[in-house]
Design goal:
Elements lengths: L19 E3 L2 E5 L13 E2 L2 E8 L9 E3 L4 E5 L9 E5 L7 E5 L9 E10 L6 E9 L4 E9 L5 E8 L7 E7 L6 E12 L6 E6 L10 E3 L4 E7 L2 E7 L7 E5 L9 E12 L3 E11 L5 E13 L4 E8 L5 E8 L5 E11 L1
Antiparallel strand pairs: 1-2, 2-17, 3-15, 4-14, 5-8, 6-7, 7-14, 8-13, 9-12, 9-14, 10-11, 10-13, 15-25, 16-19, 17-18, 18-25, 19-24, 20-23, 20-25, 21-22, 21-24
Length: 345
């Protein structure tokens, strides 16, 4: 791979002013370059099939307004792929936007990957755009979020496994800024029939496509960068203020209660103390909202040179949502990650 493709997931910096050098390694803010409807992502080991694909070349394609005064219309002013997109404007509340009813498309026990491209209407300052699921009247599931601008298309990707008990499911695009207008394009849902009895690797992220492959920031005010080191593309997190700040990956669709999984990731430091303790933790959130943490792996002598591999096993205690978090003990430590794997031993 030549050059670096990247997009800033969160945190503000002007293009060209965020480039930094760490021990001779050049790191750039993440900028996604989209040329087609399909956005590459993590490697999922299972049978997959695309069940929804909307490119808005023929109107709204069953997308509806979310909010009484919201306008949802097809437009040829902007497009991520093809010639048209969906324009969403007239919002006055953060939860308002555009939605698609996917109730009849989801099957119990099947994992789904959601993708969409988003861009702000010209003249709006950068804003946080979210892709969310509504499961019944008062249950919500966050799929993905990113800081989006009016100059380039930004992909949102996320995963979800249906438990088959949702009375209805709406997929919708919203923003923390209730005034912002935006475009959406190239929405798709891909279903993965993951066998709970499968052995070996079931998920791997290596960032070789220049995207974060569903990794998100865990903490406030962090910045995530993509950079190329040799033949590898890696992620770096900067701006940490708490030891719990770091990078997180939702692995809920891949975990089954009672089963044991091995998790591993390679890491090295990118600023701060010369050595620090790195660790993998799993955050479990039950349907009642109870949150608990379990340390899976740690290493006490991670340095700024050379990769250190963290690896450990985790037994899934029951139903809930699960987030893998990679973090450093030092609250100001920056670090890189690469080659995460989720394996059934």
């Amino acid at each position: 791979m030549t050059g670096v493709q990247a997009v800033r997931l969160q945190g503000m910096c002007e293009r060209g002013n965020c480039m930094k050098s760490y021990s001779g390694k050049i790191v750039f803010p993440i900028v996604f370059l989209l040329c087609a409807a399909v956005i590459p992502g993590a490697t999922v080991y299972g049978q997959s099939v695309e069940i929804v694909s909307t490119d808005f070349e023929k109107g709204t394609q069953k997308w509806e307004r979310r909010g009484q005064a919201v306008s949802v219309r097809g437009t040829d002013k902007e497009a991520a792929g093809g010639k048209k997109s969906l324009h969403v404007k007239g919002r006055t509340e953060f939860w308002q936007g555009a939605q698609l009813n996917i109730t009849r498309l989801l099957k119990r026990g099947v994992s789904y990957k959601f993708r969409v491209s988003v861009k702000l209407e010209k003249g709006y300052p950068p804003a946080l755009i979210k892709m969310t699921l509504q499961k019944g009247d008062n249950a919500f599931y966050s799929l993905s979020s990113a800081t989006v601008t009016d100059t380039e298309w930004t992909p949102l990707t996320g995963t979800y496994r249906s438990d088959g008990n949702e009375p209805f499911v709406l997929s919708f695009i919203e923003s923390d800024d209730p005034r912002v207008a935006f475009y959406i394009d190239d929405f798709s849902i891909e279903g993965f029939d993951i066998d709970p009895d499968k052995k070996g690797t079931i998920l791997k992220t290596d960032f070789q496509d220049g995207t974060p492959q569903n990794w998100l920031i865990h903490g406030e005010g962090l910045q995530v960068f993509s950079g190329q080191i040799g033949d590898n593309v890696v992620l770096k997190v900067d701006g940490r203020k708490e030891s719990s700040d770091g990078l997180a990956l939702d692995v809920t669709p891949y975990l089954f209660p009672g089963k044991t999984y091995r998790m591993s990731v390679s890491t090295f430091l990118g600023g701060g103390p010369p050595t620090d303790t790195m660790r993998i933790r799993v955050r479990r959130t039950t349907s009642d909202g109870d949150v608990s943490y379990k340390e899976v792996a740690s290493a006490d002598d991670v340095k700024e040179t050379g990769w250190t591999k963290l690896s450990g096993e985790y037994e899934v205690p029951g139903d809930g949502s699960y987030l893998v978090i990679v973090e450093a003990k030092g609250s100001k430590t920056s670090f890189f990650i690469d080659d995460f794997e989720l394996v059934v031993p």
